[in-house]
């Protein structure tokens, strides 16, 4: 018949080898999935760090821009179209509030 006196034993060995290979493949897939999950977590963490740093920088720039605009507004000539400052305190206050609102809108300071 053949060289193997017990064909049953040869089949059992072959099945065992296939099962070992399948187990090894499943373990490799599980390791790869765990590594991929770790990479995704690290990437998410890094992206959050980048987002937070960008928000801090944007906030700092908004503050600097707002301060610059305020300085420029303060340096504008004191006379208004309706007369000298102080002649109409209500008008002066409306202008001050309008300028502050414009600064906030342009710089996004309220965000």
Q: What is the domain total for the residues? A: 1
- Measured between the Cα atoms of the first and last residue, the distance is 87 Å
Oligomeric status of the shown chains? single chain
Overall shape:
rod-shaped
Mean pLDDT: 85
Low-confidence stretches: none
Q: Compute the gyration radius: what is it?
A: 37 Å
Encode the helix/strand succession as letters. HH
Structural class: mainly alpha
Number of helices: 2
Overall helicity: over 70%
Strand content: under 5%
Number of strands: 0
Strand-helix topology:
Layout: H1 7-75, H2 89-107
What would you note in describing this structure?
The protein is an all-alpha fold and 111 residues long. It has one domain (7-76, 83-107). The chain is built from two helices and no strands. α1 packs antiparallel against α2 (89-107). It is rod-shaped, with a radius of gyration of 37 Å.
Summarize the structure.
This protein is mainly α and 111 residues long. Helix content is 79%, strand content 0%.
